[in-house]
Amino acid sequence: MEKELDEISAIEEDKRNLINLIAFYEKKDMNGDLFQVIYNNLIRSPDTFAPYLENLEDAENTIRTLILAT
Length: 70
Prior knowledge:
Elements (H helix, E strand, L loop, with lengths): L1 H27 L3 H12 L2 H4 L7 H13 L1
């Protein structure tokens, strides 16, 4: 039970970080290249976030849309 709670907490924190990154991107008119570097190094880091990427698929599609729109 505790392990499951830790996994859920990690997923929720990842989602918050992703939302904060998107909000920062929108507010500060961040360069799309810089945004993609941050996203690739923090969010798509395979060793750190691999177990959670399945849960973030919709958010990833949103981010890719934002990147392509700039």
